[in-house]
Amino acid sequence: MPATAYRQVNEEILQAVRMPSRRYLGLLALLAGGMGWAALCFAYQVMTGMGVTGLNLPVGWGTYITSFVFWIGIGHAGTLISAILYLLRVEWRTAVARAAETMTVFAVMTAGLFPLIHLGRVWVVYFILPYPNTAHLWPNFRSPLVFDVVAITTYLTISVLFWYLGLIPDLAAVRDASTGRKRWVYGVLSVGWQGANDQWRHYLRAYACFAALATPLVISVHSVVSWDFAVGIVPGWHETIFPPYFVAGAIHSGLAMVLTLLIPLRSVLRLKAVIQPRHLEEVAKLIIVTGLMMLYAYAVEPFMAWYGGDLVERQSVVLRATGPYAPYFWTMTALNAVLPLALFRKRVRTSLVALFAIGLLINVGMWLERYVIIVGSLANDFMPSAWFTYRPSWVELSIAVGAGCFFLFMLLVTLRVIPAVAVSESKPEPRLAEESAG
Amino acid sequence: MPDDLPHDAEEDEPFTVSRRDWLHRMAGVSAGIGLAAAARHRKLVPFLSPSADVVPGVSQWYATSCRECPAGCGMIVRNREGRAVKCEGNPDHPINRGRLCARGQAALQGLYDPDRLRGPLHRLERPRMKARARRVELQELEPATWEAALAGLGEVLAPLRATGRVAVIFDLQTGSLAALIRRWLELFGSDRYLVYEPLSYDGIREANRLLFRQPIIPVPSLEKADFILSFGADFLETWISPVQFTRQFAENRSARSVYVGPRVSLTAANAHERILVRPGDERFVALAMLHELQGRARQRAAHGAAIPDLGDYSPDRIGPQIGVAAETLLRLARAFGDAASPVSFAGDPFASGPRAVEAVLAANWLNLSVGAPPRWAEGLHALSEAASQAEAAAFTEAVAAGGVDALLVIGADPAFSLPATFQEAARAVKHVVSLSAFADNTSETAAWLLPTNTPLESWGDYEPQAGVLNTMQPVMGPLYDTRSAGDVLLALARAAGLDPQREFGAVTYREYLASRWRDGADEPHEVALQRGGRWATPAPPSPPPQPRGTRFGRPAGDDAPRLHVYPSLSLFDGRGANKRWLQELPDPITKVAWSSWIEVHPHDAARLGVGPGDTVALDSHYVAPVVLSQGLAPGTVAVPLGHGHLRYGRYDHGLGANPYHLRLPEPRDRPQAVQVANNSGPVALPCADGSPYQHGRDIARVVRASEVAGLPRPELRLPLPEGYTREGDMYPPHGHADHRWAMAVDLNRCTGCGACVVACYAENNVGVVGPEQFAKHRMMAWIRIDRYYDWSDPSAPVLFLPLMCQQCDAAPCEPVCPVFAAAHSEEGLNMQVYNRCIGTRYCANNCPYKVRRFNWFDWEWPEPLNWQANPDVTVRSRGVMEKCTFCIQRIREAERRAKRENRPLRDGEVQPACVQTCPAEALVFGDLMDPTTRIARIVAEDKRAYQLLDHLNTKPAVFYLKRIVDEGQIRDRPQFWTSKIGACP
After folding, report:
1. What pLDDT does B299 receive?
2. Residue B946 — φ and ψ, nearest 5°?
């Protein structure tokens, strides 16, 4: 590639890292308002008690845990794209990897808020950590909630490191293109990157290592999250299919979120030339795969209930489809498993409007899926005398929306200060370097 | 040294402070800061000079009589550090034998009622009839002193001496207080008094007057009967002496029981067979049976001389008119006639008039017709002395006529239950004095409100049944500036210029009582007081006099919905309405709490165009939401008593409606019909019901009577190390130190009365959540009574299932708790460590029995209700999970006692609160590791034993014994696939 093309790539990507427009700032202010309101709601909940939620006696988990699982799921696409597709040498990942990784980091952070928010006594949350104390009390390592703590902190650590590692050459590029204090800040952040050959060699080895480390996490984190349910004995939770089902669902929703975010972002950040429709089409093809996996999982659940012969399990499947949460159930089935089939048509796959709409709807469907699994199962479990329904309260909805605001806020701010597409990877040379190194 | 400092120096320099002073002050300030930080916690003030019988940490028990209903059960009350904290039944008492019902358990909430009057009140300007201004004038109640009150009333009463212009209304009292009141009235030359009970059982009194010339209310005995036939008498929940009947019924469960009435009450739910007829038609069932049995009756010449002519009442003719198959009537008659020792009884406590009277007459005739030894009058009940509705109406008229200048209302609240004419009449009286613990409906017209002690703070006596004299003593010092009614009367007599010593032989009521108790007693009265009373063995019942001929009415052919009003299991006649434990106890059948309702049959609802939850008006008086119920005879609407107080207290204020206003002023022959008007759209009722069906899950299990003997040995998964299997268990077995606590629940004895639920609230400081949170299913009860009832099948059994923590050996709650707040104890209990709990609620999600309770808020404990809190149990704060502990504080107490006495624990020594109070003795608690205990024997031997959801292999330590049902009562079409959620709107 000629030198002018390099500069073009640099400029194209780096122009996004500039002073944002007034509308952009307005959007950020709006999101900050949403976060502030949610913070007030949370303070109210802590001062008053969990009764300000819609939770009740059979239904002890609701919108908060639904949102937790949802955001953890969103956090899966980034690692999938950056790690697994990197190891598989998929060429188109470069265009979307950075945004997807950034999304992952903040989605996991957002998810991590909810286990705190949903606690009855958040002020003693540190009891769950294995710290030395005079009472010799440890957390209960049989509890999936402790697995969660381990899995999620691990995932967050690896995701952040992986993301930062990938950023180093690009931060150096920003440093080189800027002056004054900004140059100093990016200089510190880019930890002395000069683009020297042995730097590249070490960098690529490290990157490959991290990719290899992160790959099993894509599978394990959501498997662990699914154990929160599968280890429980609630009919509708206690199913062996849950780990693969949840992982597929997580990637499904994460890819849909990539579409939902990138299609507007490539206009907002003026990255249309770098993030091209064909990249998005590749994402859509992956969604077809995960969508088919969802369809399979949805079909297996009733089959296993029938085949297993357990009366309560069978009834819970029937109740899911006919009971108080039936509208959500049918909506989620349509959105997650049926709607993606439309992507088999090239025309749909290449229409940005259709992709955006499908991505958004899959996200709605995936949120509802977790809601139906969590709330619907609890609402109709073993004791019919205790059956009751749940509806989120305004506090829960405020906090759920506020968490979304937090995610978008962090994403929008971050994509203004780091290159939204990997500059270095958009140039062919590093590959050659890597090949020579390997 | 501060003293050494010159004074002027201090004045000159305001900041001159010695080092010692500085340290003193800083110590004070830091202590103050510390206290301010701990402001939520209350100060504990030790006794400076403790009373001799108050030992901190040691309970004192005082025997007294329960006065929550006329039954008069014996009660002992636990006092800790000067505060009464728990009521239990007196184990020696002949009526209740150590048991109490839900209302008795809640008696303390009357004592600690936050809305009690705390001192005398005086109404400055008497309310006049100016309708609009009245509300304002009612506010003009001024606090007064007793001296002022007595002086003021002395001036009123002195001129009325021997004029006969004084009248008294009092609640049902026998013995000393009644005698004192009568003597007091005599001094004013009056014999006008009304013993007022809202539920007056007019039918029984009148029928016995007609039949035997004795207007009495007898107490039937179910003890030796082999056929129990009730015509609308709800003897398991409210009728006459329910704790006594519940025990007799549970002990005699093999006797066939049949209930004939308009609604599936608790009693009907527990009967082997129930026949639903519209209100007022019960008597025709009895008459049709009598028609069939009259041949036999004629042979019993001893009684049958005047048997009425029953030509018109053949089952063939009556059956179609009341909607009961003639074969059913014939079968019932023959079964009754063939039984060795049948008993039938009737007596609507609420209704009066021919309908109620004839039902009792017919039931009595049935008893006479089979010539069984007359079981109708095994004991004479104190209720015999209560005034009938007709007498109350006559009294009201007399007061309205103007012959009364001073009216004292003692303990009763007639304005709540009598027609509005009473309040009008009371307004016409110059001086109305209310002697009550509450500013109730009646006090609205009173010029003076003189607060009396609650029964638990009073000396007194009460004789509920002939030969059973209960003594009453204060179980703690009075909370407020209140006096006992007897003392007030004595003081009033003195204020009116009379000499109490001369007229009554005593200056205080306690002396008066002591002198009466001494009379004719062969033991010091302190002995009786300590025991709780004097209980002679009742004299054998005298044979009834020759019955007289009676006449009966005809079935009415109307089809307007007929009204059935019944006393509420929890609120009774309304007196329980300000006790929040009782408000929070759901009705056993509808599962509604904190609200009144109108039960309508779905057929009628369709006809009237009303749906569940619709707010509907009956006769434009009674406005409440509709509950659809198939446990009702078509053509009936049923409403519970108890709600709708205009004034009483905060817990009934603005809740529900008062059905007393539907009671007709005059008895009419025709059963009362009501107009139903659709008023407004649906509302959400506070209702504890999920799905009424078992959905084929076999949760509350039954067995046919004929199959009990042939049951195979049940396969139980014992909560002991031997219950461990390699293939069934994930985690290793638990060893146990000395005990493995377990419980058995005999579903065949449990009647579903809810006494255990309230006992648990009292023992374990369980929070009360109120109507809004109850409607959101956030109730905190550690033990609840599930009710399973296939409404679509009229003869299906109504199954009650008391559900507390099952203390599983392989508890699903334990492994999921991330912080070990849910942990297994050495004695097999699933402990919940409150201060370790972080509130994930995972344990509650994973509990298949749904017995864990989460503190959604810090629950309210308004002063002085918090005085009742059991000092041995924590009051939990918001954000933590809690649940049944098997009353671990009682286990520890017994263990420590045994250790101190250097002996092993005895079987039955530990009784959790629910076990202790169960009137049916359906619960058994003990150590499963010791094979000699009752519980271990039940588990080893009873073939009816099963564990709830045993297929989950949780190995519960609660063993249920299957309910034994009638041959025809098991249906093989469970509601497998219905997605119906809840019977409540």
Report:
1. 55
2. -155, 165
Task: Locate all alpha helices (DSSP H) within A15-56, ordered by sequence.
Answer: 22-48
Going by the DSSP 8-state scheme, the letter that residue B549 receives in this structure is P
Q: CB-based contact (8 Å) between B47 and chain A? A: no
Q: Where are the alpha helices (DSSP H) in A88-196?
A: 93-117, 144-177, 180-189
Report how many Cβ contacts below 8 Å link chain A to chain B.
178
Q: How many domains does chain A have?
A: 1
Q: What are phi and psi of A78, to 5 degrees?
A: -60, -50
Residue B427's CB: how many other CB atoms inside 10 A?
16
With 0-12 / 13-18 / 19 or more C-beta atoms within 10 angstroms meaning exposed / middle / buried, residue B542 is exposed
Q: Of chain B residues 696-735, which have a CB less than 8 A from chain A? A: 696-697, 699, 731
**Which pLDDT belongs to residue B560?**
78
- CB of B873 less than 8 A from some CB of A: no
Q: Which of B788, B818, B849 sits opposite A128 (nearest CB)?
A: B818
Single pTM value for the model? 0.91
Q: Is-contact B690 B850, C-beta < 8 A?
A: no
**B532 dihedral zone (left: phi>0; alpha: psi -120 to 50; beta):** left
**Weakly modelled stretches of chain B, pLDDT under 70:** 1-16, 31-47, 125-139, 296-307, 372-378, 537-546, 549, 664-674, 676, 678-679, 968-985
Tokens of B489: 């009367």
ipTM of this predicted complex?
0.93
- In this complex, is the C-beta atom of B952 within 8 Å of any C-beta atom belonging to chain A? yes
Give B76: exposed, middle or buried? Use CB within 10 Å, 0-12, 13-18, 19+. buried
B510 Cβ neighbours under 8 A, 6+ residues apart = B459
Tell me the pLDDT tens digit for each residue of A386-427: 999 999 999 999 999 999 999 999 999 998 888 888 777 666
Going by DSSP bridges, is the β-strand pair B614-618/B622-628 parallel, antiparallel, or unpaired? antiparallel
Subunit contact A384:B695, Cβ cutoff 8 A = yes
SS3 B337: helix
Among left, alpha and beta (phi > 0; psi -120 to 50; other), residue B304 is alpha
- B845 neighbourhood in chain A, CB within 8 Å: 60-61, 232, 234, 378
Which B residues, 825 through 844, put their C-beta within 8 Å of a C-beta on chain A?
A: 836-842, 844
The upper half-sphere exposure of residue A339, i.e. CA atoms within 13 Å in the direction of its Cβ, equals 23
* CA–CA gap between residue A236 and residue A381 (Å, rounded): 8
Question: What is the Cα–Cα distance from A45 to A136, expressed in whole angstroms?
Answer: 31
- What six digits make up the tokens of B372? 């069984």
For chain A, state the CA radius of gyration. 23
Decide: residue A58, CB within 10 A, 0-12 exposed, 13-18 middle, 19+ buried.
buried
- Residue of A121, A128, A375, A393 best to disrupt the B interface, most CBs of B under 10 A: A121
Query: What are A212's two structure tokens?
Result: 């290899």
Mutate to test the interface with A, among B685, B845, B950 (most CBs of A within 10 A): B845
The alpha-carbon gap from B530 to the nearest alpha carbon of chain A, in Å, equals 44
B806 touches chain A (CB under 8 A): no
Q: Are A212 and A158 in contact (CB under 8 A)?
A: no
Q: Please give the domain boundaries of chain B with CATH numbers for all domains.
A: 2-29 (no CATH), 121-199+386-535 (3.40.50.740), 202-384 (3.40.228.10), 562-682 (2.40.40.20), 702-969 (3.30.70.20)
Buried b (16+ CB within 10 A) or exposed e, B212-246: beebbbbbbbbbebebbbbbbbbbbbbbbbbbbbb
d(CA B905, CA B737): 14
* DSSP H or E segment with residue B169: strand B166-170
Residue span of the structural domain in which A325 resides: 3-437
